[in-house]
């Protein structure tokens, strides 16, 4: 059996998605593996996987696709009136008001407009494994730009701030709310805090493959460790954050930091978005249409101070309708550094989840466009 053989099922009419997935994995290192799942209006229509040691229920680190689950929790609490998007964070977390942060709202944080993307001197990998530790460091930090004047992606710290607000308001962590309200009742294979009993299904994220010359050229072109990008991606710590190995640390998986510490499968990612908009397995949708409309609306577009042209954010989610022109204007979701992608397209009726175990060199994932387009064509 070839290590790039494709396994799983597709519904009638989605056979071209299987063909596209087979072409994608054939062009990758087959040892790494990938998964693809899609729903059409709450019904699972694609469930595929390939690669060594990869099955349909294999779990791996999904990095910032975690933000989708964290945002869904936030949206639920906003929907219920527990959180107010335009209330200052410091109203519930007084320590956060230090150093000119007193007017920053939850909306500012969710749209990456707070200016709080890290701390002077950096955060260690151990710090970034725990939202409460991150929040303690951020409380005294001055923003890196005037809040509200611009936006820049806070890759590893954004949802530690959101988590602290949720903790202060509800007495529970974001992870606890997610488990009780979302993951367990909807049976999602996406964890913000992986139980020890599920470790047997976890497969480590693997490093990209590149020549020494390619590696040297790539790193030499990056901004310095104390630049805005360096701060946002933990490069100003000692040692600089090893992002490739981050999710392979048990403490990260156990705590499930809400910005980048999630562990899951393509099934879990796709089901998250299907549950949010349409409901799954007879359970109702988690979000009302008005809530979907609010959280899917683009808020921060144009040049991202951290990521440049790769920005475009709704509330907590990425604005996927700006990422993929064939999707509806209010498509929303979140990708992750190791190559995961996930979104809902309410207009097209699609929920999409994709994982891969090996980082793409330079964080480049052209297969996202191919697979998303294939699912969209089949569904419409």
Q: What does the model show?
A:
The two termini are 34 Å apart. The protein has a seven-stranded antiparallel beta sheet, sandwiched between helices. Strands 4-6-5 form a three-stranded antiparallel beta sheet. The protein has one domain (7-70, 176-379): Beta-lactamase. Helix 1 packs antiparallel against helix 15 (367-379), helix 2 packs across helix 7 and helix 5 (131-139) crosses helix 6 (158-170). The chain contains 15 helices and ten strands. 35% of the residues lie in helices and 12% in strands. It is globular, with a radius of gyration of 19 Å. The mean pLDDT is 94. The chain is an alpha+beta fold and 380 residues long. It has helices spanning 15-26, 66-79, 106-110, 125-128, 131-139, 158-170, 174-186, 212-221, 228-232, 243-246, 250-255, 266-277, 289-296, 320-323, 367-379; strands spanning 7-10, 34-40, 43-50, 60-63, 190-191, 262-264, 318-319, 332-333, 341-345, 350-356.
